[in-house]
Amino acid sequence: MGLALALGIEAVTCLLRFGFDLQATRDTAAAGRMTFGLRIHHGYFGVLALLLGAAVPSKPLRALLLIAGIGLALSDFAHHFLVLRAATGDPEFHLLYPAP
């Protein structure tokens, strides 16, 4: 399930990036003011969901958190280090937004 979710998220991400020419670093730069310049990747939420899932005693909630965590973390990793590296030559994994 987590892999299927990752593939779905990556399909949407590729559509936005290559179909609509959206680039997160460029097109969400205004969000940098709210995050003190830190670029928030959806993979971070995936790692958080995995950590929470490991600590939650409820089996149904644990399963949902683990599926979501795998999907988010795996899709972010694949997008930056497989898709973007192959398509652009640069993984574009920025920790900070560029200075204005």
Helix-strand layout with pairing:
Elements: H1 2-19, H2 24-27, H3 42-55, H4 59-88
Helix pairs in contact: 1-4, 3-4
Q: How does the overall form come out from the CA principal axes?
A: globular
Q: Which structural class is indicated by helix and strand composition?
A: mainly alpha
Radius of gyration: 15 Å
Query: How many domains make up the coordinates?
Result: 1
Span between termini: 40 Å
Alpha plus pi helix count:
4
Mean pLDDT: 93
**Run of helices and strands:** HHHH
Polypeptide structure, described:
- The chain is an all-alpha fold and 100 residues long.
- It has one domain.
- 66% of the residues lie in helices and 0% in strands.
- It is built from four helices and no strands.
- Helix 1 packs parallel to helix 4.
- It is globular, with a radius of gyration of 15 Å.
- It starts with a helix and ends in a 12-residue tail after the last helix.
- The model has no long low-confidence stretch (mean pLDDT 93).
Key features of this structure:
globular, 100 residues, 4 helices
